Amino acid sequence: MPDALAVTGLSKRYGATHALCGVDLAVGEGELVGLLGPNGAGKSTLVKIACGLVRPTGGTAEVCGAPAGTAAARGSLGYLAELFRFPGWASADELLALHQRLAGSGGGAAERAELLDLVGLTEARDRRIETMSKGMQQRLGIAQALVGQPALLLLDEPTSALDPAGRRTVRGLLVELRRRGVAVLLNTHLLSEVEQVCDRVAIIDRGLLVAEGRPEDLARPHGVEVETASGTRAFPAASREDVPAIVERLVRAGERVYEVRLVRSTLEDAYLAAVDTAEAPAGDDRTAA
Amino acid sequence: MSDVLVVAGHALRESLRRRVFAVVVGLTLAFGALYTWGTSELFQDVNNFGPNQFGLDPRVLAGATILGLAMFGTLFLGVVLAVFLTLGAVRGDAERGLLQPLIVRPLGRRQYLAGRFLAAASVSGAYVLIVYAGGVVVTGVLGDWWPSDPVGAGLRLAAAVVVVAALALLGSIFLSANANGIAVLMVFGAGLLAGLLGSIGDALNSHTLQTIANTSSWLLPFEALYRDALRVLVSEVPGVTGAIVQLGPLGGSHDAGPLLGPYTIAYLAGVGALAAAAFARTDL
């Protein structure tokens, strides 16, 4: 079974600007991968190449074994762009019906009703899109991307216009999609979102993949802090296993111990460390979106 | 083919729901009413003319002239409609974020272009034929004058609008909506101006002006189609009256020759191939 998305040595140049410089990335079947990186790192370019909207300068991108951009590849994916707009005159139901026809989906009214229910827009079925809030349109965008039961979902900042409740809805939706075996590449700036739902994280900076792994692996333990009567004592090199010995030593030395904390670096720390240490490739002015 | 029809249907539905067609129908009815009134007044005056020493038939002269002018108005309205249906089809819609959700579907880019062209060409072509037919009927009923080849002239006029729709669609790949709309309307105006220069060149026997007009006709065949439509409108009017009306309104009539039809088909195919190749290489 091929990966839902397999990217090998992918590069893209816009004139003198290197948007991607040989990125390797795979998203397995039913895997939820978060794509992180600063503005202009090349995340959206990678997603657009996978969708067939942008042609790569080098390397390959395959969707479910088919070269990106081919009809077979596009038939296997759903996509929500960062900056999207749907025809304001259409209703939610009409939009989904249009995408069903274009995707060749035979799901009919039942599929449309299920998708609208999934994103909490059942009541807005016949409402014109131009009368919907941005958050509702974003949820409709996710429903649109799910038309035809794609094997891979490419979401570019899908929660950027959502309020906290809307974000929670989308997080729940992502978990549900993973349960159904849909692979998701989630391009976002929200680290907390990635930390909560993603199986794996890929961090891109200046067109390079600078870090990759499970969120809990990237956010490693980072020492122990002990609250004592004389103040906070830090043990940066210590781990969870060292806690009993540290407490015993402090108590034996006459300290009164009130609290012990295991300090973990956050994904944010890992992200900032990865981005700070990344080096620009030779001749790179600055990367593009 | 079904993808092409889906895109064409979507484009037409958008025009319908955005009330583009309602505006067009309203303005066309106003145009038709004014044309009917003007034609009625014209033929009332013409019927009062007495016989003249030059052998001119004033009824034929009036009918051919006013219908020729109506053809120009019809062409202009049809061109505006075609341009508005296509001016933002690619780059304009991509800049607004409307295009990407459609293009990532299995639908091919060529099918998308074909769908948009089908919608614009069928609507603007049908519009021109209907308005032109209305003009012919009004002129015939009120003035008792009927063109020599009304079908041939109408088809040439409709083909001219289809050519402009193809050019506007091609332009939409390279230019944003506003820039494309302005560019295509300026090209349309330049083409008609070149035709007028050709007429002046014929009158003055200026080889340079004639060359400019001929070159423009091949580069922008909508101009040649319009002038040829004016020609076939009165091609069988005999005598002095025929000699005058065959100049067309403002001297615009011109015989483009038998190759115009095949050339127009080849031209449309060429524009389509160029548009498909350019769109395939466009990053969105």
Task: Describe what you observe in this structure.
- The complex is a heterodimer of chains A (289) and B (284).
- Chain A has helices spanning 43-51, 71-74, 92-103, 108-118, 134-145, 164-179, 191-197, 215-218, 243-252, 267-277, and strands at residues 5-14, 17-27, 32-36, 58-63, 66-67, 77-80, 152-156, 183-187, 200-205, 208-213, 221-228, 231-235, 257-264.
- By secondary structure, chain A is α/β, with parallel strands linked by helices.
- In chain A, a hairpin with a 2-residue loop joins strand 11 (221-228) and strand 12 (231-235).
- The radius of gyration of chain A is 23 Å and the shape is globular.
- Chain B starts with a helix and ends with a helix.
- Helix content of chain B is 79%, strand content 0%.
- The A-B interface holds A 48, 51-55, 71-72, 74-75, 77, 79-81, 83-87, 89-90, 98-99, 101-104, 141, 144 and B 2-3, 6, 10, 14, 17-18, 96-98, 100-108, 281, 283-284.
Feature tags:
heterodimer, A: 289 residues, alpha/beta, Rossmann fold, four-stranded antiparallel beta sheet, 10 helices, 33% helix, B: 284 residues, mainly alpha, 12 helices, 79% helix, globular
Q: What is the CA-atom radius of gyration of chain A, in angstroms?
A: 23 Å
CATH architecture of the largest domain in chain A: 3-Layer(aba) Sandwich
Structural class of chain B: mainly alpha
How much beta of chain A, percentage-wise?
25-35%
CATH superfamily (homologous) name of the largest domain in chain A: P-loop containing nucleotide triphosphate hydrolases
Percentage of residues assigned to helices of chain B: over 70%
**Helical stretch tally of chain A:** 10
| Total domain modules of chain B | 1
Low-confidence stretches of chain B: none
**What's the N-to-C terminus distance of chain A?**
31 Å
Strand content of chain B: under 5%
Assembly state = heterodimer
Overall shape of chain B:
globular
- Low-pLDDT runs of 5+ residues of chain A are 279-289
Largest β sheet strand count, sense and barrel closure of chain A: 6 strands, mixed
Number of strands of chain B: 0
Element-by-element helix/strand order of chain A: EEEHEEHEHHHEHEHEEHEEHEH
N-to-C SSE series of chain B?
HHHHHHHHHHHH
Radius of gyration of chain B: 20 Å
